[in-house]
Amino acid sequence: MATTTFLSNATVSIGGVDLSDQCSAAQLTVGYDSLETTAFGDAGHKFTKGLQMVEVTLTMFNSYGATEVEATLSDIVGDGDTTIVISPSGTTESASNPEYTITNAMLSSFTPIASTVGSLSVVNVTFTGGTFSRDITAP
Asked: Where are the domains of the chain?
């Protein structure tokens, strides 16, 4: 049974630009590649961890301007050296609010214009690759 209730209010920074106020959903998936080490005589598959794998998926309200969503993403699309900093709630790291820093992530594509009559313009982006580190110490 859950002992606490968590209200999502993630903070998201891409390439040093805080876009938290333009982000409505954030998902971070971290892990490692599975490398098979099964040898003759083993009764089942055996694995060891390989390289880190990271995926960051964001839903953002499209906005235009020097430090807004479209300009930030246009500057980094195709680059494999983007840094993303994301935490579940607020900017102070702690055991209950870990901050993840993803370095060398790549945004391979994005949709700079997504317009529908009567709707807010929303863009979904996925960053892949790079390495992650987890920090729970307050600055």
From this structure: 11-36+46-135
